[in-house]
Amino acid sequence: MAGLQYRGSDAQGGYLTNPRLSExxxxxxxxxxxxxxxxxxxxxxxMGKGDVLTFDKVSAIDTAGGTxxxxxxxxxxxxxxxxxxxxxxxxxxSVPWTGKLQALQQVGDIGDAVSHVLKQDMATVLDKxxxxxxKQSWVKYICKSSNSGNFETRAADATLxxxxxxxxxxxxxxxxxxxxxxxxxxxxxxxxxxxxYVGIFSVNALRGIYDDGAFQDAAKYGDPERLFAGExxxxxxxxxxxxxxxxxNTLGSSPGTNALGEGVVFGSETVMEGIAVPEELRQKxxxxxxxxxxxxxxxxxxxxxxWKQSDTNQTEHIIxxxxxx
Length: 325
Fold this sequence. Notes:
325 residues; alpha+beta; Major capsid protein gp5 fold; seven-stranded mixed sheet; six-stranded mixed sheet
């Protein structure tokens, strides 16, 4: 494992790591992660914070300001402060190999191959854990036809009332995106980047949107350098991202109909990420006199939705677009 440095340790053990290599690995993960690029980072994260991190949530002011009367005192109003919690967990995976394999291989470096597969695994695992929180929104939009649907509010583990009687038989279309964006606007949910909302969709869900003529006409960019990873176009102030790792392609399918998929549409302040140990590569301390080697990725982190339906005077900032829970 050329280039890996040794981090000081006592005789009982330790691990080998290379901070520069770990930083390079995290940079390479960005294009592979569709959900994680949209999270907020918990400020002040680091070691020694315990297994639960808290973050503050600031509501809007309770009474809006207005015209003042010269002889009257300035009105005084308040906003509320809430707290969210993020449970931190260990994540990781490893690949072992033998000293003989490393000594006798004729082509390439076993470490390069291991780094590649670990990078793919890390992106898959961490982005999925992040995506779970997006999909747990209590606000569900159920596609009923190409130009109709309805909103339902259900706890993350509750069954949707519409599923049994109104099983969707249409892929999501531009109409459904418009419905979701309008709902976010009516709820005064700020756009993700100050201008546009974001939609992340599975392959099959995005196919229905992509085939819509309205999308083909509008999804053009003058600033491609600003595109998010996986972004394929923009419609009705919603930037559409294709996701292939976590979102399901078969929700809403039934015999004789197409698989419809699912997606999420959201504004700003959606999911908070808390980190105790950023993801890094760790090399196993060789054992059995150097005959047993290995490389792993490791991190301690967690995710949680910022705003929930249960928060006082607040609502979800994410819509789960689907035809099933």
